[in-house]
Write a structure and sequence with these properties.
Blueprint lengths: L1 H17 L9 E7 L10 E7 L3 H5 L12 H14 L5 H11 L2 H7 L4 H10 L3 E6 L2 H6 L4 E7 L2 E11 L2 E6 L3 E6 H7 L4 E6 L21 H7 L8 H10 L2 E6 L11 E6 L7
Length: 277
């Protein structure tokens, strides 16, 4: 009995030390595939760690998402302050600052914040800022993010302009996340050609709103319009298989004289059909 116990302990010890067991990283999954036969490997299978993230996390990367349907202004300003200035504010803190230093009564009346409210709050925390009006060329020459008002889907909205590249305008939208518009489309929805800039010394500027590879993966508007309302089409064989899985199986005698199983027991599927009155 003692020999068995000692043997088991030794097997466990050598097995645990021989195998390279590493802690599993957070947000990671493993997949296994056959190794390339051209690769001189001692293992038949190749195992690799792949880190995954929710799509929503990347969609709102670097953006403070608006908590209320009327708070796009405070969320856009917080996004700009955090991503460009380097502040670490929450939307709630920005809203409290806008209410304190902005035109309180008008804010309550219109249930939104103005560029003047933003300027007063930014001045109160020690930075120079201002609203300007210019052409599209003026916006892209700034080489820095800016808050721009747009009129989109029937609503007036604040977004943060991030960059312009290859005919597309990339913005941080507090409601929709990182999105982009065709240049001409952006010019149509840009409200009064207005932009709001915060002046920050070059050495203090942050690049949390800089373009990344994920931002460049977009679907053009024409493709969206073409396929957004198209119903998915499935093959008849596929639909029959789905229907068979939901039906009741029964054993019957094959009565089809042209069948290879004529006069033999076969399995059939009895489906239920409902007819509207």
């Amino acid at each position: 009995m003692l020999e068995i116990t000692l043997g088991s302990a030794m097997i466990y010890y050598f097995a645990s030390h021989a195998l390279d067991i590493k802690p599993k990283p957070a947000n990671a999954v493993y997949y296994t595939e056959l190794a390339d036969p051209r690769d001189k490997s001692f293992s038949r299978f190749h195992r690799e760690t792949v880190e995954i993230k929710p799509a929503l996390e990347n969609q709102f990367r670097g953006i403070v998402r608006q908590a209320y349907d009327y708070s796009c202004g405070s969320a856009a300003l917080t996004t700009l302050l955090n991503g460009h200035v380097g502040a670490q504010l929450t939307e709630q803190q920005t809203m409290e600052g806008l209410l304190r230093f902005g035109e309180y009564n008008r804010i309550v009346e219109r249930r939104s914040f103005s560029l003047l409210d933003m300027k007063r709050f930014v001045t109160a925390i020690g930075f120079e800022s201002g609203g300007f009006k210019g052409e599209f060329s003026d916006l892209i020459k700034q080489d820095q993010p800016a808050i721009v008002p747009i009129s989109y889907a029937g609503f007036k909205h604040f977004v943060v302009y991030k960059a312009y590249k290859n005919g597309r305008v990339y913005v941080a939208d507090p409601a929709l996340g990182n999105i982009s518009f065709d240049q001409e489309r952006f010019k149509q929805i840009w409200e009064n050609n207005t932009l709001f800039l915060i002046s920050v010394p070059k050495a203090q500027q942050k690049n949390l709103l800089a373009l990344q590879d994920a931002d460049l993966r977009h679907v053009d508007d024409a493709t969206i319009n073409r396929y957004a309302l198209v119903d998915a089409q499935f093959s008849t064989d596929y639909m029959n298989k789905i229907a068979d899985k939901a039906s009741t199986m029964r054993r019957v005698i094959d009565q089809n004289k042209n069948s290879d199983t004529y006069n033999q027991p076969i399995t059939t599927f009895m489906r239920l059909y409902y007819k509207r009155k």
